[in-house]
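Retro notes, structure queue

What went well: the backlog is down to a handful. What didn't: a couple of records were mislabeled last round, so from now on we paste the full input next to the output in the thread. Example, using Glycosyltransferase RgtA/B/C/D-like domain-containing protein from Sphingomonas populi:
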Amino acid sequence: MDIVPGPPTLSFARDYTARFPRAAWVALGALACAAVLLRFGLFGDPIAGVDEQFYLLVGDRMWHGELPYLDIWDRKPVGLFVLFAAIRLLPGNGVLAAQLVATAFAAATALLIAVFTRKRVGWIPATMAGIFYLAALNTLWGDTTQTPVFYDLFVMAAACLTVRAAGTMDDRAFELDRS
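Corresponding output:
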C-alpha cells in the first residue's frame, strides 16, 4: 500500500508569523514612516548638526590612513568613527547618508521599544510609545546624527535581553519550586 503524503506544510512560515505577527509589521511600517516624517525636514542639511560633519570627516580620514586620537582628536569612542567610516562607503552625499542611517537606527530603536512594551499594553499603545520616542528625539537634538541616536538601539536591545533573561530565570525558579 502506497502512502500518499499530504500537502507540504510550511511550519517555518507559521512559526515565523507567530513570532512576528502582522501587527508587528504594521508597527514597523508606522514607526518607519514616523521616523522619516519627523526627520525629513533636515535631510541633506549640512549645518543641521555640528557634530555629524566632524564625525564624517574623521570617518573619511580613516579611509585615507589617519587614525583617531593620533592624527585627529575627539573624545568620542572609536566605534562612532568606525560607524561613520562605514557610512562614508555609501554612495552620494555623506551628510544625507549619515542622516538616513541615523533615521534607520531611530526607527529600529522605536521598534524595539514597541516590542518591549507590547506584552504589557498591546501593539497600538506600544507603537505609540515608539512614536513618542521618535518625537522626543527631536526635542533633544536627536533629529540629527547625535551619538544617542546610534547607541540607544544597543541600550534598548540590552534592556530587552535583560527582561527576557529575567523572565527565563523566573520560569526556571518556578519549575524548581514545583519539584
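Agreed that this is the format going forward. Reviewer comment attached to the example: The radius of gyration is 22 Å.
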